[in-house]
Amino acid sequence: MEHQPSREIHRIREARNLYPYQSIPQQIGKTSIVFFLSDFLTKVLKDSNDSHLIYQFIADSMDVLEMTERGVANFHLVFMLRLTHFLGFYPNMEKHLPGDYFDLMAGEFVPSVPFHRHFISREESLVLARLSRINYGNMHRFAFGRNDRIAIIQHILEYYRLHIQNFTDLKSLDVLHELF
């Protein structure tokens, strides 16, 4: 890549595919997840700080998606939650007690309703607490119903909206909801 500090857009001299994916372009579910994540990442990645770590996380995640045979429907949930670690606002989900609410602004479970409207109900907080234990290795063991999955995505996106300026709606979300 030609990097010239005076330019906003840099020119790529040569590009090559280091790891040609086989299953992602062939499986509609995986392809849809990649389109969704592409749309999502264009809204999230505005700053170039720590770009190497984020790039490595994304590349490693795409390799996992390529190799994944079970639990693909949960992949984007794990991805969006784990990405918050690299962006500096990973939620504290360690101290969940039955009956807690999840405060989206504070990023943690709380015993009573916060004094603002950005929180998750007790019932949906239980689903979020389950999600805190999920990773790429065990995502196939977590079964979320369609409504729970839609609610989880909406809450994660609201969490991003609260922590990233100018986070706009995703056009690809409806397609993802149709499949999963």
Description of the structure:
There is one protein chain. Helix 4 runs parallel beside helix 6. With 180 residues, this protein is mainly alpha-helical. The model has no long low-confidence stretch (mean pLDDT 88). The chain is globular and about 55 Å long. The chain contains seven helices and three strands; from the N terminus they run ααααβββααα. It has a three-stranded antiparallel β-sheet. It has a single domain (24-179), classed as Recombination protein O, C-terminal domain (de novo design (two linked rop proteins), Up-down Bundle), CATH 1.20.1440.120. It has helices at 23-26, 28-44, 51-67, 75-87, 122-131, 146-163, 173-179; strands at residues 101-103, 108-110, 119-120.
Query: What percent strand?
Result: under 5%
Strand order of the largest sheet: 2-1-3
Q: How many discrete domains?
A: 1
- Main pleated-sheet profile: 3 strands, antiparallel
Q: What form results from the Cα inertia axes?
A: globular
Tell me which CATH architecture applies here. Up-down Bundle
Q: Overall pLDDT, averaged?
A: 88
